[in-house]
# Entry
Amino acid sequence: MPAIVIVGAQWGDEGKGKATDHLGSEVDYVVKFNGGNNAGHTVVIGEEKYALHLLPSGILTPGTTPVIGNGVVVDIDVLFHEIEGLESRGIDTSRLKLSANAHVIADYNRTLDKVAERFLGSRKIGTTGRGIGPTYADKMNRIGIRVQDLFDEKILRAKVEGALELKGQVLTKIYNRRAPEVEQTVEELLAHADRLAPYVCDTGLLLGQALDRDEVVLLEAGQATLLDVDHGTYPFVTSSSATSGGACTGSGIPPTRIDQVIAIAKAYTTRVGEGPFPTELEDENGEFLRKAGWEYGTTTGRPRRCGWFDTVITRYANRVNGVTDFVLTKLDTLTGLERLPVCVAYDVNGVRHDEMPVNQTDFHHATPIYEYLPGWTEDISGARDFSELPKAAKEYVEFAEEQSGARISVIGVGPEREQAIVRHPLR
Ligand code: IMP
# Structure
């Protein structure tokens, strides 16, 4: 039966965790299929606030099985740190399943991520420094370490040796760092094997069988469309497939089983790290959005870059992901702004672009073409029905919907789970 994909429509931090959690009690499995602990979901339940980086947000919903798929890169220390943190607050994590084929972030890849960024200087990507890129590079280079390798010491040692033959040289000769010892790396990785074993399985098989039993599987993307390694603003992207297609390769579920794609878009736009951002605001409006929306990274604490809503991007996200429903989050953040510019196209050297420019240089030179909508001053955080929104807020949502090309089914009006307006139930 149904597999549902949730993706970010912009550059991440759109509030996917909240949307996933919203669906939580209706789904049997929540699967993380890409990325690693570069992600950051904040989920607020009652008085409690949970910041998750690696664990799928379904871990908070009793009865839901959280799954870390083969497309994820796993920092095992972080995994146990999060498990322990939740257990200490009384959350049962024993249902977690981890793919035997997921790749493991070795210590040398965390080091390489950080030193490579320093080495790049002004060309840096602004990565989270968690070793994500180098670990995916190893996967593609076929020198990666997988979860299953931790259960065969001989194979693990051979693989670490193979990886360090190359990476040790890179660390010492290019970056002037000490290369780690093979034995030390092997020991560090083996230290966790026994504890990890109960979680590890063939998650593709598990999910296929669940779908055969008509159970609901929710596939939750890390990062977002414009950070996707293929479809994002390359090279200022993450190293994994964060769009709906990645949900298949990263989980082992075939495309024919996916029948709903929910994209989360913030009512304005944010980005962390480097890279082009046409509607970015470096004035008091940007500061307003950052303060009102509390736009600071969950993973790194970095202040997020803020800008107006960009429908060229949401239209693109619709096309790339095959969006069936948008969830528009943080509409309440815009309350109090007199006039709301919405980007509908770009001007690139005098030429109008209604769609994403195909080449990177054009996107760097894109100037937004805005339509201006009236703002509202009424507090909307208590609205639970679309009819309760002020006229200007309704018009804003309807305009965003028309320009983005798929229905806006849910609107977020505050951080709590209940602070949402459901126009079309997601299930
Ligand atoms: P990496 O994923 O650490 O390699 O970083 C690559 C780029 O993706 C950087 O610009 C990061 O700031 C960005 N990035 C990675 N994860 C997230 C996320 O969860 N939200 C927003 N940006 C992210």
